[in-house]
């Protein structure tokens, strides 16, 4: 592999405003960030500081009002939603606390669906993920039949279905006990070891401790 000197995730001066009547919330005010392949970055900050808004913009789930997001050299922001969805499917793994598993599909079918959304089919990758995340034998289970730790690992398997360059997680350990949190952090760390750029938003000190570096948001700005 050629040496990577360009950051795989490049975020330039992101702005995001919400307006409700007379009220205007400045959720992001000029946030810039660069994350290299293999780096694990924690995003911390008090509740309401803009962490979830930032991750949603990085994932192309939300559109910033200003600034740009580039992943592996491709701009994901300021595009029609269908294009953002397709770029996300190919380039980004998304792991949110609310879960990225569809309840009516088995774990294996959730992984297959994530691959189909990226125009791929790779049963070998699916089975390797199930094995690597200690979910062998749980591929036919539905999300409601999984323990908290299994559900977290299954969500990670879906996020990793297409070998994403960037893995984004918003409070992924918020509902887990400490031991399970520790294991999930170990798995995220391992992904960084494989060259994935990992960005995790969390209040948890354990997440900051597991990361290579931490950025802190306050009122939509980096401190
Ligand atoms: P965090 O994840 O750090 O708790 P958020 O990114 O969720 O922060 O929120 C940042 C700010 O933007 C907060 O003031 C929040 O109330 C506001 N906000 C977030 N989403 C919306 C929305 N959809 N509509 C209006 N305001 C929002
Ligand atoms: Mg949040």
Structure write-up:
The structure is a single chain. The radius of gyration is 17 Å and the shape is globular. α3 runs parallel beside α5 (148-159). It has a single domain (36-63, 78-222), classed as 3-Layer(aba) Sandwich (Rossmann fold), CATH 3.40.50. By secondary structure, it is of the alpha/beta class. A hairpin with a 2-residue loop joins β1 (9-20) and β2 (23-35). The strands form two sheets. Strands 6-7-8-3-9-10 form a six-stranded mixed β-sheet, sandwiched between helices. Helix content is 33%, strand content 27%. It has seven helices and ten strands. The longest helix is centred in the C-terminal third of the chain and has 16 residues, at 178-193. Residues 18, 25, 27, 45, 47-53 line the site of adenosine-5'-diphosphate. Magnesium ion (MG) is lined by residues 51-52, 170.
What order do the helices and strands come in, and which of them pair?
Blueprint: E1 9-20, E2 23-35, E3 40-44, H1 51-58, E4 66-71, E5 74-75, H2 81-91, E6 92-96, H3 107-117, H4 123-132, H5 148-159, E7 166-170, H6 178-193, E8 197-201, H7 205-210, E9 213-218, E10 221-222
Parallel strand pairs: 3-8, 3-9, 6-7, 7-8
Antiparallel strand pairs: 1-2, 1-4, 4-5, 9-10
Helix pairs in contact: 3-5
Bound molecules: adenosine-5'-diphosphate and magnesium ion.
Quick take:
This protein is α/β, with parallel strands linked by helices and 223 residues long. The protein has helices at residues 51-58, 81-91, 107-117, 123-132, 148-159, 178-193, 205-210; strands at residues 9-20, 23-35, 40-44, 66-71, 74-75, 92-96, 166-170, 197-201, 213-218, 221-222. β9 and β10 (221-222) form a beta hairpin.
